[in-house]
Specification:
Organism: Segatella buccae ATCC 33574
Membrane topology: Multi-pass membrane protein
Largest sheet: 5 strands, antiparallel
GO molecular function, one term: mechanosensitive monoatomic ion channel activity
Radius of gyration: 46 Å
Strand content: 5-15%
Subcellular location: Cell membrane
Number of strands: 10
Keywords: Cell membrane, Coiled coil, Membrane, Transmembrane, Transmembrane helix
Length: 830
């Protein structure tokens, strides 16, 4: 381990004790300071009473109570003063300890430096969050002093001549109490100023340390992303020299310190603790081997579990590994809670994170992959699991940069070849999603390998850790998504109404996508946290890369929030529309379709309008600039969108109730049923089966007819002829009685039969009936059939057209004779 100075005033034991109790002490400090500054809480106010005498009497009582409270609080402050000073002293000593650790770091030990920077910045942020409430209360105390100065001046200005005897006594008492209270507030202010002096000195020291740590963080970022080391080919060309330097660096770092006090980071302590962790890992393996391989296997061989035996045996190895990882993580969590040794705390944190990553991969495979695919699926992830463990090991032992640069590039090359080999051998026996993730892993290996061989070894470490974290998040979401789909199919949620599936939709369509967006940030944060740069990463996320307050401000976090809100508002849009549709169908099924069409358009505009306004607010878009730009474009847009806006206006007018989906309309000689109404056009299905779309403006300008708006019946006129000599009254009566019995006839309007004309062959009667618009053509046929059968049954003749022909002989009848005579004359001439 690298040598660090241990001044007598700041021993390692003192540092670790301080570190463990700091969190508790800071909480106590905030509590004590809160008690100290209770004296600055405003006194009770006096409201307007019946007269001045009553007001002064009430004020006297309030000031007496306030004075007693201040006296008690002053006593408490005196008792707590020493405790507060001790708490601040402890924090200051820990700051000095962090300063010694940070300023003693040398180049070439990036993991050590990152750890020291993290400790310094973390303490500064904790201190800032605790000190702000204290400063606010000091400002309140100053306000109280000013309030009592005004009250004293007002009481002094009262003329005793105009006061009653009792009022003068109350005034004198109130004045004395106010002066005494102000004196106590002033004394408390002096004490609080002393505390704030301690705070300012501590904050100044911590700020200096924090600024230095941030400067070192910038150097770490530069080393990772910009200034790489020598490329690996150059290292190989001077292999002997580099091996020698690496050996010296390792020997210097891990050489045991000769000191009266043993550092908790001494190589002997680390080796012992690593051995202890390995023992716990071995214990986890033994426990699960005994539990699953022996006991569970014997249980599965019984008849009760015969159906599960084949699946269990195929996945047994993976089950043992998954349970071993879970057991090991639990043991590490217990150790982290009980043990106060810093190396154990850091190592257990990293190993618990790695155990979670590995556990998620194994459990996801157990739940998603079939028995025959489980072994192949695990093997395609094995290279990534191994290389991630190597990186975690490097981080735990704080390995020197020289050793990382020498060892990690060939390790990545081996893992790259390994990954390519398992893809070639097992790509036919794994799910398509896992195959996709594996190809991405191969791409990450290729990129990392090229980066490390080009000299950017730390960047390759970041890439590997980032993809491992991201892959874990993806597999978690994939597993949850698959389980939810199975649950939905088993419960039949796809065919159920919205009242029973809104919660499922919330989880599936909102929680999972938002979790996917958050996983990008989480994976990058974890990757950066390998170098203790998590806080720096969050600061980068929140940094406004476009910071024009007069126009717009953008940051990575704000973009992610807007994307997440998109999923939320999309869910609200679909859910509200589904609930409205459900309500309409329950209340009035006949008009549900048309009412729902209007409602869904309004809901869409409202929901997405709110999302747009919220997004503009998050991006801090200047509404004035937006209004100016919109005003400048409005004229041109107005001309360009004249027809569109006109159709939108007429569409809103139609959807307001003039036409609804399912209505039967006629426009421009075309008759059909309305299928849909949008803001620009209306689609109808004609009686011939074709689909025609009309612009909304066309329907209104061409005076469309809504055939079903009123009662759904249409007046139909049919004609029938009867022979001359028929009894017209009798014919009208029998036809009317027969037709009115038909079920589709509109009974309220009845049937009317009138004489229309005297035709050439018959007397023409006109039959006036009201039939349903939707079935007019078939109903007409049924009415004509009824007329024919009725007339036949009563012996009424339906005459067919008749013509009388008279033949008149003319010269045209001699044409054959004349033609024969002409032929004879022609032959004689020849």
């Amino acid at each position: 381990m690298k040598k660090q100075p241990h001044p007598p005033a700041y021993s390692p034991i003192f540092y670790y004790l301080c570190k463990q109790v700091t969190a508790v002490m800071e909480k106590r400090l905030l509590f004590l300071v809160s008690l100290v500054v209770l004296c600055v809480l405003p006194g009770h106010a006096v409201l307007k009473e019946a007269n001045l005498d009553t007001t002064l009497h009430i004020l006297r009582a309030e000031l007496i109570n306030y004075h007693l409270e201040l006296e008690q609080q002053s006593k408490d402050m005196e008792e707590q003063q020493q405790t507060v000073v001790e708490e601040l002293t402890t924090i200051t000593n820990l700051a000095d300890q962090n300063a010694v650790m940070l300023y003693s770091q040398r180049n070439g030990y990036i993991f050590d430096l990152a750890y020291a920077c993290h400790e310094a910045t973390e303490q500064f942020h904790r201190f800032k969050s605790k000190s702000q409430p204290f400063r606010d209360r000091i400002n309140q105390n100053t306000t109280e002093l000013a309030r009592f100065d005004s009250l004293i001046a007002n009481l002094n200005s009262m003329e005793p001549l105009f006061l009653s005897e009792k009022a003068r006594i109350d005034r004198s008492v109130c004045l004395a109490l106010a002066i005494n209270i102000r004196r106590q507030l002033k004394e408390n202010q002096v004490l609080l100023d002393t505390y704030i002096g301690y705070y300012n000195r501590s904050e100044e020291k911590l700020k200096t340390l924090n600024d230095f740590a941030n400067m070192k963080y910038e150097e770490i970022q530069t080393n990772i992303f910009k200034n790489g080391s020598d490329n690996y080919f150059k290292i190989l060309s001077h292999l002997k020299t580099n091996l020698s330097k690496t050996g010296e660096s390792v020997a210097e770092k891990y050489k045991p310190l000769r000191s009266e006090r043993v550092s908790q980071w001494d190589v002997r302590v680390i080796f012992f603790l690593f051995t202890l962790i390995a023992v716990y890992a071995l214990l986890s393996v033994i426990i699960n081997l005994i539990t699953i391989r022996i006991i569970a296997t014997r249980l599965m061989k019984r008849n009760k579990f015969a159906k599960m035996q084949d699946s269990f045996m195929a996945k047994r190895t993976c089950i043992i590994m998954a349970m071993t990882v879970v057991t090991f993580a639990i043991i590490l969590g217990v150790i982290h809670t009980v043990v106060s040794q810093n190396f154990i705390i850091m190592a257990s944190n990293l190993l618990v994170e790695y155990a979670w990553l590995l556990g998620v991969i194994l459990i996801s495979l157990l739940l998603r992959v079939s028995d025959k695919q489980i072994r192949s699926a695990f093997r395609i992830y094995a290279p990534l699991i191994v290389v991630t463990f190597i990186v975690i090991f490097f981080r735990i032992v704080l390995i020197p940069n020289a050793l990382v640069n020498l060892v990690f590039p060939p390790v990545l090359l081996v893992c790259l070849l390994w990954q390519a080999n398992v893809i070639k051998r097992h790509n036919h026996n794994v799910p398509k999603s896992d195959m996709l993730y594996t190809f991405v892993s191969l791409g990450v290996f290729i990129t990392s390998c090229i980066s490390s061989w080009a000299g950017f070894t730390l960047l390759s470490v970041q890439l590997i850790i980032w993809w491992m974290m991201q892959l874990t998040c993806i597999l978690t979401i994939t597993c949850l998504s698959g389980w939810l789909r199975v649950y939905s199919k088993r419960k039949g949620l796809d065919v159920q109404d919205i009242t029973k599936r809104w919660l499922f939709n919330l989880v599936y369509h909102v929680a999972l996508p938002v979790l996917g967006v958050a996983s990008v940030f989480i994976s990058i944060y974890w990757a950066a946290d390998i170098f203790n740069m998590g806080d720096t990463t969050w600061r980068i996320f929140n940094t406004k890369f476009i910071d024009n307050k007069d126009v717009i401000t953008l940051s990575i976090t704000s973009i992610a929030v807007v994307i997440s809100l998109f999923f939320v508002f999309s869910y609200l849009n679909h859910t509200i529309k589904a609930f409205v549709k459900y309500h309409f169908e329950k209340s009035d099924p006949n008009t549900a379709m048309s009412r729902n069409m209007m409602a869904r358009n309004v809901i869409q505009i409202f929901v997405w309008g709110v999302w747009l306004l919220v997004s503009l607010k998050i991006f801090n878009v200047n509404m004035t600039v937006l209004a100016v730009v919109s005003g400048g474009l409005s004229t041109g847009i107005g001309f360009a969108m004249k027809d569109i806006l006109e159709n939108i206006y007429y569409g809103a007018s139609l959807m307001a109730g003039r036409v609804k989906v399912g209505d039967y309309i006629e426009c421009d000689g075309t008759r059909g049923k309305v299928n849909s109404i949008s803001y620009t056009s209306t689609t109808i299905e004609t009686i011939y089966g074709s689909i025609i779309s009309f612009q909304n403006s066309q329907l209104l300008t061409k005076n469309y007819k809504n055939m079903t708006k009123n009662h759904g019946y249409e007046l139909d006129v049919l004609e029938v002829g009867v022979a001359y000599g028929s009894d017209i009254k009798m014919v009208k009566q029998i036809l009317q009685e027969a037709i009115v019995k038909l079920p589709f006839i509109y009974k309220e309007r009845g049937v009317k039969i009138v004489l229309k004309d005297f035709g050439d062959s018959s007397i023409i009667l006109k039959v006036l009936i009201w039939v349903p618009v939707l079935t007019q053509y078939t109903n007409d046929g049924e009415v004509m059939e009824c007329i024919y059968e009725t007339l036949n049954a009563h012996g009424v003749e339906i005459p067919f057209p008749q013509r009388d022909i008279r033949i008149i002989r003319t010269d045209n009848d001699r044409i054959p004779e004349l033609m024969a005579q002409n032929d004879k004359n022609t032959q004689a001439n020849i």
